[in-house]
Amino acid sequence: MAESLIEQLPKIVAEGKKEVEKIMERLESNNKITLQTNEYVLPVKKEANLFQGRYQDIDGQNWFNRLCYGDNLLVMQALLNGDEATGLPSMRGKIDLIYIDPPYDSKADYRTKITLPGFDIEQRPNVMEQFAYSDTWKDGTVSYLKMMYPRLYLMKELLSEQGSIYVHLDWHVGHYVKVIMDEIFGKDNFCNQIIWKRATSIGAKAKSNMMARNCDYIYFYCKNYNNIKYNQTYLPYSNDYIENYFKHIDKNGRRYRIQSLGDYTEESKIKFREEGKIYVSSNGKEALIQYLDESKGVVLDDLWNDIKGLQSKAFQKQNSTENYNYPTQKPETLLERIIKVSSNENSIVADFFGGSGTTAAVAEKLGRRWITSDFGKPANMIMRKRLIDQEAKPFLYQAVGDYQKEVFATTKEFKRVGDLSQVVLNLFGAMPFFDENAPKNLGQIKGSRTLVYVDSPNKMTGLSTIKKAQELKESFMGGWNKVIILGWNFTFDIVNILKDLDRSQVEVLVIPPDLLDKLKSKANFKKLIDSNKIRFSSLQYLTIKEPKISPYSCDIDELEIELDNYVLLSPDALPLDDKYKEQLQKIIANEPLALIEYWSIDPDYDGETFRSKWQDYRENTHNDNDPLRVINWAKIQVPHKEHRKICVKAVDVFGFESVVVKEV
Q1: What is the pLDDT of residues 529-580, one digit of tens each?
Q2: Of 30, 17, 287, 311, whose CA–CA distance to 149 is shortest?
Q3: Per-residue b/e over 116-152, b at no fewer than 16 CB within 10 Å?
Q4: Taking the model in full, what pTM does it have?
Q5: What is the CA radius of gyration of the chain?
Q6: Which end of the chain is more exposed for a tag (fewer CB within 10 A), N or C?
């Protein structure tokens, strides 16, 4: 008989503790994970004004809110490490509030709807997201809890001594996660199980033998129960309560109720008499007059039925502009309550399953500092646009720096990734090396001196990968004439890196992101080999017209940048169903710039950090009235210089980034 989940819990905890031990050892080693800053975003919704250095540049002295792309297990390790090179300090023990809304349905379909001129398409998760999601649910709830254990432990490490964590779940896994949280945070540090009535029922229509599910559960724990930061909160009285209890009205029209004076001191009673707040009954007994307009309201309890979910008609009627069409998005009012209760102005608030960015957006509005992260490219794009749209303070857009360190090489999945590399080599038409000492991700084109290097789906193919492939080209088995690198995911600056390479010696191609779906069985693999239909595409890239610069005043120039073309990799290499690929091909052929989701300009690029001083993005109608297209040109006013390096970055609707650098 198979073990029940209860029987497996001790093993889950023991395995989680071992993984945490390895992580903590890694934090003390010299081989540290860091966050690289891809973009320093200075939000600008309209045409840019003068830029004369009136902003805080990146250094360890200033605080910067942070949007981070990558696996949150690695992001949190990087935050615990800090970064000596940039002066960004460790966040250990500095975060006052963490809210997370992790995925809690193994059958969920996290496709992203993309609206293009004339039609909609749906994008499946990319390969890195597919791997992460399949690992999360491969053994059902057991693997989910194994995923959560080390992450919750690192969150505890990041929390301040007065900090709190809110974990938002539903009926699928909530009660099991609570047991894990008791283990990590301590049962005595459990504060509340908050029941949130969304006002949108699910399940009842599909199944007639159960009640409608209408609630989520939010588990509220603290780091130290005796030192918790908690702001007592009151809710307004209901109309029925007012009518029933504040039923008296004085001559000035003020509602009040009569309360006993039994618990008050004589000194307080004297004060009430002086204020005219004593009611004397016909038998001479005194009571307190409590006015409605002086009452704080009802103390907040753990049943929240006054905040509507995004899918409810009441919410949609009142908050039509807040919905970002993100499948797990939560209303701002929910996060506003949590943030107000468990943090103060200038507190640091974090969300490591950022999603649509509600936590960061609300923290920004409430004057809190924030850190948020997500593994999904669509989520990061939505968050970046959302924060710019609300004209947030300048923030950093960062990514986990070096996926190819031994962090992944030492995981239990390494063998599986190696086997996958051999499959990719076969599909590309390359022969794996059968020498036991040869890496599994290397092969050769038969009858040639061309080496083929397959990168891991857990890595971002970038400069370090290319250098490693070049070294293998020169040294492996006597050297090769050419190396072809097959990658799944790429660093944002990959196109710029390739410009300096000799394509006759080094070539980089894209592995189709939907390949994993097509490899669900050995039979499918054989069909793919026989059909020869797998396409390995070249990378996408952006081109711009020659920048124009003209005097605006004695010490100010006007810089004009215009997009020229965008070349997207083949639709066959995108995570799309076949029915969408033909439609997309028409856009690629006729209006390629319509695929740009976001583009930004750094007019003084230093070659290291991209400082985004102007942005436009789809849905931004401040620059034009077309929500489905970005504007193709921009004029920005900049301090006069004899020579400047301009960098333009674009992100397409699928999350691929391209960079162009021009010197004028």
Answers
A1: 666 667 788 888 899 999 999 998 889 999 999 999 998 877 777 778 888 8
A2: 17
A3: beeeebebbbbbbbbbbbebbbeeebbbbbbbbbbbb
A4: 0.85
A5: 29
A6: N
